[in-house]
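U., I forgot to send this yesterday:
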Amino acid sequence: MKFLQIGFLLVFVTIPAFAQAPTKPAANKAPDDKAATDKGAADRVRRQQARSLLIALSTDARAFHDQTLRARSLARIADALWTVDGEQARLLFRKAWEAAEVADKDNDQKLQEEIKQQQAKTGRKGYAVTMPPSLRREVLRLAARKDRVLGEEMLERLKAEKAEAATNAKLDPGRLNDSLSQRLGVARELLETGDVERSLQFADPVLTTVSMETMNFLVDLRTKDPAGPLNADKRYAALLSSSMNNPQADANSASLLSSYIFTPGLYMVFTGSGMSTSQMSSTIKPVEVSPELRMAFFQTAAAILLRPLPPPGQDAGPAGIDGKYLVIKRLLPFFEQSAPPEMVESLRGQLNALNTVASEGARRRDDEWLNRGVRPEKPIADRERELMERLDRAKTSTERDSIYISLSNIVARNGDVRAREFASKIEDPEVRKEFGAYMDGQLLNYHVGKKQTDEALELIRKGEIKLLHRVWALTQIVKELVKTDRDAALQLVEEAATEARRIEVSDAGRPQALVAVANALKVVDASRVWDATFDAVKAANSAEGFTGEDGGLILQFQSKHQSSVNTNDAPDFDLEGIFKELANQDYDRAVELARGFEREGPRAVATIAIARAILEPKKK
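Result:
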């Protein structure tokens, strides 16, 4: 009984102690709760301010004279407003589409004029241009991600518009018309975000057509679908089945269908002995598919390629006899590896029959492009040796200059400084100067991308590098160098700022360069970012061409015989990133800074960035 009494006593004493324990910290939590409540109320006020900021900007944007700016601003405002005012956002998306229709027509007209000017200058059909943005694509992409019904509505409007011009327009072989291309573009955007189900809802109506775009979508779907290759393989098999009995399917259809298995990322179509190639991947490697799916391809491709030739004088389709000959010649090695022997022999017989009617140019063609993805690519050393042998046999300065350009381009792929040496041997002084600057820019991009700081700095000092490109490279090097040598990084920022101020006051590159300097200061000396951005705002007010977005580096080379355009995005030239950063630090100060822009474009870009910083969920 004594033991029992003691036990009861212990229970009696300890139970109240446990019961009282949770009450002690309650009083200490009150200030935290109050702080959290105050912060929540402040966040709600800030979000309401951001919404009001966007609504006011949308009123201004509807009156913007620049249709491109109007379309982009309204679409981005709608995108930012979606979570807080869906109805207003839908209205703005529709207004944005109307502006985008006008802007795309204007931009296309300007593009055609530029192409004609280049062709008149060079005296040939070739040209090298930077394509204008597709504003309807931008609006559609943003709207469809928010509301599938709204996206379908815009696609129907595009389809109806394009149907009117379809009778007079001739599509490039292997390409979709604009409305289908836009639909697939939306599907690709959704696939990139991981929304496979909605992506396929948009893509499926297009995946009944063989084209470069549809094949590339299926290739991407095969690698990015979390469910694995099942969805992609199933749709590819359906495409094979429908193509086999389709009288419109031709040699180009067989060529494009082969890419899914044998050359994913590399697509070829033929127009006679000519060829159009699109390469979406740096490496071309066959994929492992089931034996049944591979056999289904062989059966479909053979059924298409073994169709009898049309009677003389009858249209042989976009590929023509030469194109059909070249497709069989290209695909035959794949058949020889895995197809049944009787199928291989039938294709060889067809190739021999075509050999009697194909042009001499098609019969003799056996170049690197035709065999890309079929045969292993020649090592750079072998290709360089072949070009050097051709150089010894060259008879004219024009021919030698062309070979030196090819040699320079080949060795530059690995950042080899001999690219500059080959460029310096070009005999035509005008071509030598223009191509030398183009090659220096290419090499600088390579070294910056590979984080080869010393090589990049040496090229900045010695090469023919434009001021804006120089500033970009210095600011990128700063981000790498600050990890090991902050003082040296600070010196490079100062050098970049000095170079930026050397750009003409009226040049849009000047404010772009100063924005890049402000972005570099974020990682080196954050206390100076506000002042650096203020300098960019002042510079923007003197540069009429500055829009605050689409920042990029364009390297262009053009001669009578060759043209090249290389475009690289440069987000550090744009206002969006820096103003988001500033808004998160001090909303009111960022708004005042954005109001300092005198032109509509930069002010709209900065304002939308500020509102997004407040309205978008914060990343954990």
